[in-house]
Specification:
By secondary structure, the chain is an all-alpha fold. 88% of the residues lie in helices and 0% in strands. It is built from two helices and no strands. The two termini are 59 Å apart.
Amino acid sequence: FARSPNRPIYSRSTPPSKPRAGDAGKGFAVVAGEVKSLANQTAGATDDITGQVGAIQGAVDLVATAMRTVKEILGSINDASAAIAASLTEQSSATGEIARNAEQTSAGATEVAQNVDDVRQAMAEIERSAREMLEATQDLESQSDHLGAESGSFLTELKKVVQWIAASGQ
C-alpha cells in the first residue's frame, strides 16, 4: 500500500473519500445558503412588483374617471354652444327686422340704419363664430368618444397584463 506525497495516511477502516465528503457538504451548505438568499430576494422583488402593479391600477382608474368627467364637460359645452347659436340666430333675425322697419319709417335716418346694419354684421359674425365653436365642440366630443374607446381598449389590455404579471408572480 504505497502512499502518495499529497495523500494523508488513513486507517484501513476509513475510506479516502470520507474527508472529501465533508468538504463537499460544506460546499453544498454554502450553495444552499446562496439559494435561500436568492429566494428571499425574489420574494421581496415580487412584493415590490405587486405594490407597483396596484399603484398602476389605481392610476389607470383615476385616468378613466377623469376622462369621463372631461367628456361630460364637453357635452355641457356643446349644449351651451347650441343654445347660444340658436339665440344669436333669433337675435340676428330680429335685428334684420328692426333694420327693415327703420328704413321704411325714415328715409332720412341713414345714420340709424347704418348703426343697425353694423349691429347685424356684428351679430352675423358672432353667429358665425358660435357656429364654428359648435362645430369645434362637436369635433372635440367626437375625439373624446374616440379617446374614450381607445382608453377603454388600453385599460382592458393593461388589466390583462397586470393579471398576467400577478399570476406569474404566484
